[in-house]
Task: structure prediction
Amino acid sequence: MRVVGNVSSMGLCGFVAAPVEIQGNIASGLPGVTISGSVDGSLREAKDRVRAAVVNSGFKFPELKVVVALAPAEMRKEGSGFDLGMALSILVADRQAEPVRLTDTVFLGELALDGRVRAVRGVLPLLLAARDAGFGRAVVPVDNLREAALVEGIEVGGAQSLAQVVAWLAGHTVLESVPGGDSGPPPPIPDMADVAGQSEARHALEVAAAGGHHVLMTGPPGIGKTMLASRIPGILPPLLPEEALEVTAIHSVAGTLPSHHPLITVPPFVAPHHSVTATALLGGGTGMARPGAVSRAHRGVLFLDECAEMGPKVLDGLRQPLEEGRVTVSRRDGDASYPARFLLLLAANPCPCAPAHDVDCVCTSIVRRRYLGRLSGPLMDRIDIRVQMEPPGSTMLLSERGESSAVIAERVIAARVRARERWRAHGWLTNAEVPGRALRQDFPLPPEALAPIETYLRDGRVTARGADRALRLAWTLCDLREGGRPGAADVAQALMYRDREFR
Result:
């Protein structure tokens, strides 16, 4: 009786994982290996890796026609994570491995030529989907065990080699189940107390952190824009459990998850170079798109230094994720949609020559306007806070340290708690996520509080979108002062943050 090896695995399509059934069949014919099922180049090369791994693990590779099918066929499959499952399907079909424990188990892992099981990306979202699909066990590379252990409700075993997995199938050994090694403390975050002066910019970043608002900082080089930006994660609240899993899953798919700190609990800080391409920023690549910088900054901070040096098309690509909190990238193998709700922090010099003191500038007024004019109107309309930074005086540099990140974080966390309680029934976490319709209809402000916005709308100094964003900012200012509902002063201050000419 002919035996077909059936092994279960999981495949990723963008950020969505789905079960994949791997079937191995051995039949008479010319010796060779055929892999079918809409596979990419790395999977077509897997037949050589699998053959070498099987032989070097002490097993005999069938000298017959071997066909390995990955189903469903219409699902595009990529990556090397199917190697272990394909090798087991061949060994089971050749009766060199026991099939009993294959039921209810998913197998993930790349095979080295000597039979070792190498780590793969995307283990966390793959196992979350496997658990939801009803699987009770999973075998993963031992180097992914710490990440896999984050998934509750599924039994996970870490494998070091193909031979070990075959012995486990026969009941002769036990796979590792406890992550080894000490993860150690997380990397430290710079403290806000290190920043001398810049009280206005510090307060603006506190407001941005409390409500999730986007910020533009302009000022001469060396004034502290990058220094302030790198300290924002220290004043943001830790990620909630569901946020931490979502952020960790994104970094797992992107292949940027730290091996010793698999669960990301601190808001990520992503700062690409100003020469970044649209593909690197938004996501892309051949086949199915991978997460870009905007998705890796999800629930954290995306810092774009020297943003005026970036291409206008690259910057305008931010408009969709800023508005929707997601980014959708279309590639050859389909559309990939990734979460991308981040705090955008832009920093720019006031002009191309960028002198230390503005009086030394040699740029004409046209050149200065053209330089910052690379930031388009629709993009700037989505920036809630604009700060013009000035060089601190010598007294500021020699004065006492300012407030520490811990002190500022207490106020930020308290403001976020108030906002989260207010929007709990609607599922919004920060004021920046609240739709304008909800602010106007479900949480309306009295006419006297809306008077500054009406004046701005009548004078054409703010758009309808800008008015909604000013309302969100006003709610954040109200939360920071522990008020019940924004007043005219909160709305006016929100408009001042948005309008540089008004200031």
